[in-house]
Every structure is written in structure tokens, then in C-alpha cells.
């Protein structure tokens, strides 16, 4: 089969091949003469070569080597010429030339030495004839060898084939995101949200998809359709991130063919700038509001796409951080949440983002209704927590009177817990407030609000993104891990309530302990190690993390030799007064 492929298509063009030579030699009486004649008929027809070839023979250069180098040189020239034709003259003329060339050369497409030329001709044709595309598509090796420009033409009419190409990339993308969330490097400085949007867009998957789409609107729409379908099927919000990253990657390359037809382009571009700054400033807030208010009657479907862009965790993170910042500012200004248009806009966008799945699922494209109580009761509650902190700080600084120091408030208003359980937006903002106080190393506020996290709306407090951020911020309170009360509240009161039913929580606790085990009191650490032992149902990741933790704890234990020798050494040693006690 190798030989047959090597000469594939030559006979159709009337060019002699190996089979012809074999036949000639089989049916002749003087083989040497036959070979000479075959060489003359099929060699390079240049009179001056007749004298040069014997000269090469004297130098021991095989004829094959000579012909091969001439062939390679000619092929390079031909490839250059094809690329040049694709750029010169009138459009119709240049493509006519290339089509004629393809017609003549296509029969040699399976011949490895000629294949690059045929592929190059197809690559430069904006529309390869349907018949040729079908032949390429039907042959696995040809399909693999053709340029992405040709594949795009095949894909745009073969959604299933395009889906097969895109699917592994989407799986890889989700896996990469999950690997970051479960990374063993825990830090409050470097977390899931640290890379800038521009850096994220340089990722392998986004770059590959961008290249596969090129300027083809049909392929871009197909990818968006895949992302919507997968988001609906899995509720995985990372697909929303990819939706925004892909659009902005095409924006970076100035692919106006796609950017101008995606109705979300300008909104995404503006939001992207906010994500870069991790804050929605007043000017951009006005712009974003303009886009939302500008959705015309009959075009409401665009809300489905906008909600998906706003459901991207990077967008939610920016909106939630901005909300917390606004609330703090309002405390300082003695202003109520309902009097702040900027805050109301942030809530409107959070609400649209959090409602993305329901909107795309129900195909009812209208903005979710904002619950008045969120603005009139829940946000003022959060502001009261900020006030509690200020009051406590001031009290600590005042000279203490007979009644002694005022304790930090320890009860949580029932309404707060209820909001976290029943209202998605309240829950999201509440969780970000808890991340905020942890980052400020505010242990009192953290321990006060922690019990409210055991039961939250759709278990949001046990979601990977929140736990990833919380474990990072908890490293700032690392010294508190030596205290029994703190560990009992955090581990027994929060983490361990969900470990058995949620594998991801189990993983996050182990990640945290791997990082901070040296800060935890030995007795507590031992009981945690037992409590976190993998069960039969546990996945490989949990088992691996638990093994790593056990190994670290083994290394910390004193060796038996040290333990037995210690008491005997203590006896004869006289007590030496320390410098301080003299």
C-alpha cells in the first residue's frame, strides 16, 4: 500500500510510475537499454543536463538524490508561486487560476511528496469545490493533513464533525479551571481571580478555538450554541467565562466580521474593563446601564446572552466586590441602599447574571424582578454589621470604666440567616461580605457570621469558588488555628457538616490543613485527621490529599528514641536561672 500511495494519481495525468517501469522490465529482452530509455523519457528534459549527470556519477552522487533535490526545489518554488497567485490580480482571476491548478493536481493529493502543494492550493481558495471537500472529509488522513482554512469550510456544514473537534477542548478548559480551584497552593495574594482577562485569553483552549473559528460567523455561532447547551446540561458557570473570553479574544484580533454581529460585544468589552480593575466605576456603570436599557422590544433574546456574560464568575466577583465597597461607602455617607442608583445597578446585573440558567432554560427573556426586601432589609442589615465593627473598635479605644470592656456582638439576626437560605442575590453578597471580613483578619465578625453558612441558598457556601477564596483568606488568620474555640467553630461547626455529603468540601478542608497543619494544636489535628479519613466512596483526589496530610503529620511526630530518652536526660540537669530571673 505504501508503494501504491507513493505513485497515487500519476497514471491519470499520463505520467509513468514505478508500476510502468516494472512492466517495461518484465516484458523486455535488454533491460539496460529499457532503463536508459525510461530515464530519457521521464527524466528532467534539459539538454545541458546530459553532460552534467555523468559528472555527478563520477562524484558518487546517486541519481535519486539529484532528482530528489531538484523535486524539493521545484516544490518550494511552486508553493511560493501558489501563495503569490492568491494575492495578485483581480479576485475572480486569481481564484480561477487556483481552481484550475486544483483541478489538475487534485488526483495527486494522496502522493506524500505532492500533497503539500495540493493542500496549499485548497488553503488559499475561499470556496473549495464541494466535491473535493467531500473527498477530503471521507479520508481520515487527508482530513488530518488539510489546513484549518479548509477544515472551516468542511465544519460549517457539518456541525457533528465540528462538535467532535471542539468537545475535547471544552473538557480541557473545564478541567483547567477546576485544577486552579483545587490547587494545593493556597494564598490570599494569588487566587482563581488573580489573572487579568487579557492573560486568561492567552490560554491554550481560547487560542485554539479562536483559530478554529477564524472569521467564520457560522462556526462562532456553533461554538456559542455548544456552550449554551453544556451550560444548561451541567449548570457549570465556567462555560459562561469561556463565552466572554472567546468574544474578547476575537475582539483583541479585531475580527470585525464577528464582533459587529454579536449584540453583546460592546457590553462585554465594557464589563471586561471593569473585571480588569475588579471594580465597576461610575462612568462604566452608566455605559453598562445604557446597554441594558437599550434592549428594544422584539430583541429581548439578547438578554439570554447578556445574562450568560454576567454569569461568568469573574463578572460576579467584580459585581459583588463593588457592591461590598459601595455598602461601606454608604455607611460613611449615612445613606440608605435604596438611595444609591449605582448600587441598584450592581444588584440588577447580579440578578441578571444569577438568573442566566433559568432564563436560557425557560426561554422567557425578561429581567428577573428584584425583591424589594433585598434592598430595604438585607443590605441595611449588612451595613449594621459594618457599624457594629466600627462601634466595637471605638469602644476598645475608650478608657474602660467599672463595667469592663463591651463584648463583641455574638448573635446573628434571624433575618440574615433566612436571607442567606432563601435569596440567591442576598446569599452571594453575604458570602462576599464574609470573604471581606476574613481578608481584614476580623476574627470576631467571622466567628459571629460563620454559623449562617451551614445552610445557604442552593449550598452556595459549599461551592468550589467560595471555598477556594475562603481557604485563601483564612491563611491570614493562621495564628487563630492554635485556638480550640476557633477550630471547633470552623471545622466542626462548618466544614465537617458537609464533608460526608460533598466530596468537594472534603477536598478543600484537606487542602487547607495541608497548608496550615503546623498551626493547629496536635490533639485537634489528630481528631481532624480521623474525621477526614476517606470512605469507600471517596474519589482518588481525596485519598491522595489525605495521604499527603498523613505523611506530613508523620514527619512532625518525634521519633520513639527521642521520646524515651527525654525523661532520663531531664533528671541530672541542674536548673539554670535564666537571665530574666536574676
From TrEMBL:
One of its GO terms (biological process) is negative regulation of transcription elongation by RNA polymerase II. Pfam families: COBRA1. One of its GO terms (cellular component) is NELF complex. Transmembrane segments: none annotated. InterPro entries: COBRA1. Residues 553-582 are annotated as: Disordered. This is NELFB factor. The lineage of its organism: Eukaryota, Metazoa, Chordata, Craniata, Vertebrata.
Amino acid at each position: 500500500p505504501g508503494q501504491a500511495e507513493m505513485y497515487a494519481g500519476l497514471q491519470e495525468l499520463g505520467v509513468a510510475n514505478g508500476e510502468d517501469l516494472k512492466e517495461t522490465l518484465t516484458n523486455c529482452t535488454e533491460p539496460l537499454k529499457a532503463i536508459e530509455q525510461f530515464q530519457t523519457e521521464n527524466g528532467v528534459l534539459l539538454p545541458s543536463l546530459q553532460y552534467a549527470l555523468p559528472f555527478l556519477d563520477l562524484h558518487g552522487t546517486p541519481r535519486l538524490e539529484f532528482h530528489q533535490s531538484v523535486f524539493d526545489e521545484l516544490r518550494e518554488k511552486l508553493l511560493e508561486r501558489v501563495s503569490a497567485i492568491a494575492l495578485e490580480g483581480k479576485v475572480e482571476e486569481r481564484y480561477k487560476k487556483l481552481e484550475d491548478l486544483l483541478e489538475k493536481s487534485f488526483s495527486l493529493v494522496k502522493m506524500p511528496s505532492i500533497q503539500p502543494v495540493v493542500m496549499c492550493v485548497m488553503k488559499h481558495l475561499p470556496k473549495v469545490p464541494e466535491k473535493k471537500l467531500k473527498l477530503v472529509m471521507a479520508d481520515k488522513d487527508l482530513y488530518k493533513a488539510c489546513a484549518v482554512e479548509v477544515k472551516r469550510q468542511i465544519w460549517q456544514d457539518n456541525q457533528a464533525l465540528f462538535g467532535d473537534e471542539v468537545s475535547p477542548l471544552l473538557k480541557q478548559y473545564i478541567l483547567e479551571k477546576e485544577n486552579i480551584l483545587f490547587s494545593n497552593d493556597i494564598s490570599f495574594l494569588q487566587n482563581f481571580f488573580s489573572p487579568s482577562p487579557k492573560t486568561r485569553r492567552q490560554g491554550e483552549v481560547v487560542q485554539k478555538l479562536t483559530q478554529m473559528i477564524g472569521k467564520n460567523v457560522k462556526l462562532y455561532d456553533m461554538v456559542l450554541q455548544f456552550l449554551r447547551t453544556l451550560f444548561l446540561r451541567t449548570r457549570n458557570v465556567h462555560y459562561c467565562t469561556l463565552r466572554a473570553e472567546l468574544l474578547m479574544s476575537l475582539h483583541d484580533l479585531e475580527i470585525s466580521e464577528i464582533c459587529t454581529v454579536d449584540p453583546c460585544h460592546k457590553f462585554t468589552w465594557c464589563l471586561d474593563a471593569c473585571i480588569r480593575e475588579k471594580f465597576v466605576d461610575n462612568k462604566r456603570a452608566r455605559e453598562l446601564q445604557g446597554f441594558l436599557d437599550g434592549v428594544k422590544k422584539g430583541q429581548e433574546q439578547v438578554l439570554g446572552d447578556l445574562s450568560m456574560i454576567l454569569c461568568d464568575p469573574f463578572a460576579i466577583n467584580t459585581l459583588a466586590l463593588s457592591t461590598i465597597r459601595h455598602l461601606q461607602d454608604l455607611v460613611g455617607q449615612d445613606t440608605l441602599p435604596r438611595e444609591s442608583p449605582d448600587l441598584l445597578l450592581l444588584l440588577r446585573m447580579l440578578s441578571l447574571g444569577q438568573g442566566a440558567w433559568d432564563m436560557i432554560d425557560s426561554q422567557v427573556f425578561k429581567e428577573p424582578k428584584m425583591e424589594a426586601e433585598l434592598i430595604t432589609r438585607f443590605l441595611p442589615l449588612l451595613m449594621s454589621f459594618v457599624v457594629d465593627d466600627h462601634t466595637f473598635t471605638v469602644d476598645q479605644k475608650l478608657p474602660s470604666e467599672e463595667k469592663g470592656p463591651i463584648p463583641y456582638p455574638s448573635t446573628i439576626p434571624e433575618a440574615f440567616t433566612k436571607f442567606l437560605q432563601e435569596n440567591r442575590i442576598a446569599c452571594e453578597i453575604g458570602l462576599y461580605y464574609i470573604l471581606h471580613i476574613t481578608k481584614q483578619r476580623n476574627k470576631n465578625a467571622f466567628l459571629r457570621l460563620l454559623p449562617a453558612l451551614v445552610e445557604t441558598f442552593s449550598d452556595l457556601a459549599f461551592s468550589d469558588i467560595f471555598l477556594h477564596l475562603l481557604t485563601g483568606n483564612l491563611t491570614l488568620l493562621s495564628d487563630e488555628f492554635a485556638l480550640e474555640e476557633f477550630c471547633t467553630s470552623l471545622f466542626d461547626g462548618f466544614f465537617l457538616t458537609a464533608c460526608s455529603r460533598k466530596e468537594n468540601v472534603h477536598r478543600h478542608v484537606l487542602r487547607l490543613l495541608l497548608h496550615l497543619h503546623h498551626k493547629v494544636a496536635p490533639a485537634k489535628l489528630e481528631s481532624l485527621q480521623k474525621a477526614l479519613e476517606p470512605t469507600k466512596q471517596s474519589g482518588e483526589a481525596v485519598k491522595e490529599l489525605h495521604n499527603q496530610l498523613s505523611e506530613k503529620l508523620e514527619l512532625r511526630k518525634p521519633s520513639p528514641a527521642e521520646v524515651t530518652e527525654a525523661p532520663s536526660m531531664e533528671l541530672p540537669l541542674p536548673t539554670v536561672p535564666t537571665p530574666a530571673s536574676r
